[in-house]
Amino acid sequence: MSFNEKLADRIRVQVRLFPETFTEKKMFGGLSFLYKGKMTVGIIKEDLVVRIIADKIEKELAKPHVRPMDFTKRPMKEFVYVSQDGIRSEIDLLHYIELGLEHAKNKL
Hints:
single chain
């Protein structure tokens, strides 16, 4: 399994700021962070993977460094990849964790 351990550590620090409890699970050949069993964000190789509610996904896809998640060679609904350049700051990373958490809560 290959994923960016430094990014995993950055996410671990960020999720501690939330009152919600996140768990970790190996998924997609990488690592995912879940809220109540629902995926929020994850890491595949060097990319951040984020689940985003349908109403917000087009806005996020319009940003540089964000692209559809095509893990299966086809775009996956409500999933995006964010490259390292899109999460250089902790504020950027926090934004994507918040979007992922919103998605998870919306699916409960």
